[in-house]
Specification:
mainly alpha
Length: 241
């Protein structure tokens, strides 16, 4: 009995630290973007945006599984072209489309959506809600290597979702407050999809080609640095406007 209780306690403690490690990056980035807002949004609306991102995970997972089954009926892709197709059509397009739908639902009747920076704030909270639950799933299923997975995703995947959300929020603001052109409307979805698709295509390449995988890891680090710099420029543009 004592051994059983010890094992149960160990499992609970491990799960506690796994959840902390999985959620902390999203919490940190959400707090950071909230602090950039000169007139912070009401907490209840930010919670709604975050929960909207959380609720996306299950339906998006079903869509991704369905699309993957259509495109790769014989299993996972085995070529770089296949992983690129998977990156865009199985991951980037469904996920960013769902985030945009959630963002639109949050903002369409939101009386506090009255400043340019607000678009980025709400988009980030939707994106981080999605990223937080996705991160929890990856960390919990990673077994003994969960710490490594948590660290890598804290440095790459969660900041990636954060940057994609900034790009979406920026162009949503440009369309809503600045210039309602077809080009700005298209950029709301197109730019984050391209960023997300390129990120995933680079990250997935190692699963089919070990040589490309080694090179792509370096390329992925470089791409992530450039992506974060681009996202921060968008933040500065709207903070100063």
């Amino acid at each position: 009995m004592q051994i059983f209780l010890y094992l149960c306690g160990k499992i609970v403690r491990n799960m506690y630290w796994m959840l902390i490690a999985a959620l902390l990056p999203a919490i940190f980035l959400g707090f950071y973007i909230w602090r950039q807002d000169a007139q912070p949004e009401p907490a209840r609306w930010l919670i709604r945006a975050f929960l909207a991102g959380v609720t996306l995970c299950v339906p998006v997972a079903f869509v991704e599984q369905y699309v993957s089954g259509l495109l790769f009926a014989n299993g996972s892709p085995t070529t770089l072209l296949g992983t690129t197709v998977e990156a865009f059509f199985v991951a980037a397009i469904p996920e960013e489309s769902a985030k945009l739908l959630a963002l639109w639902l949050i903002l369409r009747k939101n009386p506090y959506f009255d400043e340019r920076f607000d678009g980025i704030v709400y988009a980030v909270f939707v994106g981080l809600g999605f990223a937080a639950i996705e991160n929890v799933a990856y960390v919990l299923q990673s077994g003994e290597g969960w710490a490594t997975v948590a660290i890598m995703r804290a440095l790459l995947a969660v900041p990636g979702h954060y940057a994609f959300a900034i790009l979406m929020g920026y162009y949503y603001t440009m369309y809503h407050f600045v210039e309602r052109t077809p080009l700005n409307a298209v950029k709301i979805l197109l730019v984050p999809v391209l960023a997300h698709g390129v990120y995933d295509a680079i990250a997935m390449s190692g699963s089919v080609d070990p040589v490309a995988g080694g090179i792509s890891f370096v390329v992925l680090i470089y791409f992530c640095i450039k992506l974060q710099k681009a996202a921060q420029r968008k933040v500065r543009d709207l903070v100063q406007s």
